[in-house]
């Protein structure tokens, strides 16, 4: 395989990595604030894509930007609603109960989508269409480049909000110590719901970016969610920067796995590295504290 | 005219009053493989409608008993067991996924219940299961036809293979390699597997392009195949000619990949959309379900139900062993082809060769193999 081909594959891997990072950040957010491992997180991605691309854009003929904005709002509200009803109860349950409950919820959401939209995979050509972007004599799929750049911008904006704004400080305070944050006048339940909704929106954005480079299929939420969890483990459970770094590492290793070992074994490198990280540093690259042994 | 209507109503009324004959249908109705499964169930429903409208079987209406295998091995085994031990159906129409058929065939063998499946992996009929029948071709036939066409009609010398990673894809890969070796003594220049959950096909397209083949054979399901074809188109490798399985002609692939991505691709398989019977079936399907056929599975299952109905009529009873015995030797004109049922479970010896022209799957020719061909 030529060097150009390897570069093309690696850029594709980074594009996927940036999508994993967006979803992984949401998973970490929910874990840090609600002590909940949300295995249904990938299904918010699925829901957003079906509403935006199929219902609003393809069936009702809305402009794509309006479709995406409205779908993100719907998914955000849906996430907030879930946080205040289902997840608030799960938060008080043992970890294993909440893990099984969110796995069940994942299946319910996936089958609800099947019932509403049917089993057909759907194609969406994205905001830029099916084009190539040439840098020298190396061509890249425009949708790969778009996903990579837009995710990067979203993640930078997100990190800045978290670090430099009042609401960002409030979120960090709640993540650090909910009780003290509440005593200091931060509306903790409201903020938790808001953060859950925001995490759902991040997953929705990830979906809108990834569908043009693949297809909208029923297993997309599970597939991306699975990789996002691997990103969280590699980057460090509980660390937002760790989740971002983990996402890019998983994507890059997928690309490298494809180039070196072939597509059939593309996951081998990523998961071998995950095992190595767990072995050498159980809390992940930027993990907070030591992993709990059960 | 009025008397004809009265007679017809009386006949249908009489059929409706009889105890129905139950036929089991197991398909992937939920989960990521449900595209084919839902198509298959619709095909079964259409066949039952059409058979019951014509007076049923043995003067009794047919009734479907449906189970969902979810596209998963454990659920498929449970569904097969429910069919034979709970519903106690005399005959079952099974899925098109070879890996699931491999998992369930012994359930039917032990229970002595015949089943008709739509998988194409050569290994299925090598189990020696006397209750297994397949309504579609053995991929050893498609492999031979594809390799012959590539070498003799297209002058190809460097041949590459892209296959999905499951029993169907592995069976096809082995059959293609065997055909290359045995017919022309050549080895493939590249063999690339597509995982079932593939989300990015840049790697496979690059691997194939690096091997510089004269023709690439593509054996995949709709989602994986479409991703490969679309990426091949986007990256500008449409100069590499393709001969594919029926995936090339499947409406879902054309819709997903975009018709321009498949323009000129050849296929060897069950059907071309412009074949008269397929076109009639498609129109009726659209009337009933508001969309065009999703794949070849709906038509294959339609034909399977008709074949089973013929066997019950021939057996004169709903005893599973009698139905199994009666299936052998039946010759039937179906939507996809003319079938002849052999005792080893093979029924399909005709293949369609076609090409995507102006965005549509177009018929080129039929390849017929002798009915006594050895596998």
The name CATH uses for the topology of the largest domain in chain B is Rossmann fold
Query: What's the end-to-end separation of chain B, in Å?
Result: 53 Å
- Count of discrete domains of chain A: 1
The CATH architecture of the largest domain in chain B can be given as 3-Layer(aba) Sandwich
Strand order of the largest sheet of chain A: 1-2
Helix coverage percent of chain B:
40-55%
Strand order of the largest sheet of chain B: 7-6-8-9-10-13-14
What is the assembly state of the chains in this entry? heterodimer
**SSE ordering of chain A:** HHHHEEHHHHHHH
The CATH architecture of chain A? Orthogonal Bundle
Hey, which two chains have the biggest interface? Answer: A-B, 37 and 40 residues
Continuous helix count of chain A? 11
Tell me the name of the CATH class of chain A: Mainly Alpha
Which descriptors would you attach to this protein?
heterodimer; A: 294 residues; mainly alpha; ABC transporter involved in vitamin B12 uptake, BtuC; two-stranded antiparallel sheet; B: 375 residues; alpha/beta; Rossmann fold; 5-stranded parallel sheet; 46% helix; 18% strand; disordered N terminus
Descriptive account of the structure:
The complex is a heterodimer of chains A (294) and B (375). By secondary structure, chain A is mainly alpha-helical. Chain A has one domain: ABC transporter involved in vitamin B12 uptake, BtuC (Orthogonal Bundle), CATH 1.10.3470. Chain A is built from 11 helices and 2 strands. A two-stranded antiparallel ribbon of chain A has the order 1-2. In chain A, a hairpin with a 2-residue loop joins strand 1 and strand 2. The longest helix of chain A has 32 residues. Chain A is globular and about 60 Å long. Chain A starts with a helix and ends in a 14-residue tail after the last helix. Chain B is α/β, with parallel strands linked by helices and 375 residues long. Chain B folds into 2 domains: 206 residues, Response regulator (Rossmann fold, 3-Layer(aba) Sandwich); 148 residues, 3-Layer(aba) Sandwich (Rossmann fold). Chain B contains 13 helices and 14 strands. Chain B has a 7-stranded mixed sheet, with helices on both faces. A 5-stranded parallel sheet of chain B has the order 2-1-3-4-5. A two-stranded antiparallel sheet of chain B has the order 11-12. Chain B is globular. Chain B starts with a helix and ends in a 7-residue tail after the last strand. Chains A and B meet through helix 1 and helix 10 of A and helix 2, strand 7, helix 7, helix 8 and helix 9 of B.
């Amino acid at each position: 395989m030529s060097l150009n081909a390897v570069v093309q594959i690696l850029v594709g891997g980074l594009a996927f990595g940036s999508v994993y990072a967006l979803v992984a950040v949401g998973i970490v957010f929910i874990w840090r604030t609600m002590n909940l491992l949300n295995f249904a997180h990938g299904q918010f991605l699925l829901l957003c894509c079906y509403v935006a691309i199929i219902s609003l854009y393809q069936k009702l003929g809305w402009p794509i930007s309006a479709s995406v904005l409205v779908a993100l709002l719907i998914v955000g509200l849906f996430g907030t609603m879930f946080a205040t009803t289902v997840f608030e109860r799960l938060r008080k349950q043992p970890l294993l109960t909440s893990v099984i409950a969110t796995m069940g919820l994942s299946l319910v959401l996936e089958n609800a989508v099947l019932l509403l939209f049917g089993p057909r995979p759907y194609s969406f050509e994205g905001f830029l269409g099916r084009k190539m972007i040439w840098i020298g004599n190396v061509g890249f799929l425009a949708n790969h480049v778009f996903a990579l750049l837009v995710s990067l911008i979203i993640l930078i904006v997100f990190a800045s909000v978290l670090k430099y704004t009042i609401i960002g400080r409030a979120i960090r305070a709640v993540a650090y110590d909910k009780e003290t944050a509440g005593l200091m006048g931060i509306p903790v339940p409201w903020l938790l719901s808001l953060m859950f909704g925001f995490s759902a929106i991040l997953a929705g954005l990830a979906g809108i970016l990834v569908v043009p480079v693949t297809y909208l299929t029923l297993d997309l939420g599970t597939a991306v969610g699975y990789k996002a969890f691997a990103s969280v483990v590699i980057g460090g459970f509980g660390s937002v920067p760790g989740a971002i770094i983990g996402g890019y590492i998983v994507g890059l290793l997928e690309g490298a796995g494809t180039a070196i070992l072939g597509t059939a074994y593309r996951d081998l490198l990523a998961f071998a590295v995950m095992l190595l990280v767990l072995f050498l540093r159980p809390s992940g690259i930027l993990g907070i504290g030591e992993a709990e042994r059960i | 005219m009025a008397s004809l209507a009265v007679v017809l109503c009386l006949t249908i009324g009489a059929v409706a009053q009889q105890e129905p004959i139950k036929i089991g249908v197991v398909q992937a109705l939920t989960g990521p493989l449900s595209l084919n499964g839902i198509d298959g169930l619709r095909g079964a429903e259409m066949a039952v409608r059409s058979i019951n409208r014509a007076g049923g079987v043995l003067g009794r209406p047919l009734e479907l008993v449906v189970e969902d295998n979810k596209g998963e091995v454990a659920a498929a085994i449970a569904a097969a067991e429910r069919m034979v031990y709970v519903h106690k159906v005399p005959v079952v129409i099974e899925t098109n996924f070879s890996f699931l058929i491999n998992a369930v065939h012994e359930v039917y063998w032990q229970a002595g219940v015949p089943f008709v499946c739509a998988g194409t992996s050569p290994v299925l009929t090598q189990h020696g299961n006397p209750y297994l029948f397949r309504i579609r071709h053995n991929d050893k036939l498609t492999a031979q036809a594809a390799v012959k066409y590539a070498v003799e009609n297209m002058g190809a010398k460097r041949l590459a293979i892209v296959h999905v990673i499951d029993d169907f894809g592995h069976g096809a890969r082995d059959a293609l390699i065997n055909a290359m070796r045995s017919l022309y003594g050549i080895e493939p220049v590249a063999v690339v597997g597509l995982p079932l959950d593939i989300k990015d096909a840049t790697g496979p397209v690059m691997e194939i392009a690096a091997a510089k083949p004269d023709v690439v054979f593509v054996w995949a399901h709709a989602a994986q195949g479409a991703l490969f074809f679309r990426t091949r188109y986007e990256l500008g490798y449409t100069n590499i000619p393709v001969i594919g399985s029926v995936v090339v002609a499947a409406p879902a692939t054309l819709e997903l990949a975009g018709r321009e991505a498949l323009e000129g691709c050849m296929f060897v398989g069950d059907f071309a959309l412009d074949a008269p019977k397929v076109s009639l079936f498609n129109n009726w399907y659209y009337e009933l379900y508001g969309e065009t056929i999703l794949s070849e599975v709906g038509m294959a299952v339609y034909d399977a139900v008709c074949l089973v109905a013929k066997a019950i009529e021939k057996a004169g009873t709903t005893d599973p062993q009698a139905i199994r015995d009666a299936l052998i030797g039946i010759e039937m004109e179906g939507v996809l082809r003319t079938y002849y049922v052999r005792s080893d479970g093979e029924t399909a010896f005709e293949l369609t060769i076609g090409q995507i022209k102006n965005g549509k799957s177009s018929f080129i020719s039929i390849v017929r193999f002798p009915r006594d061909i050895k596998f």
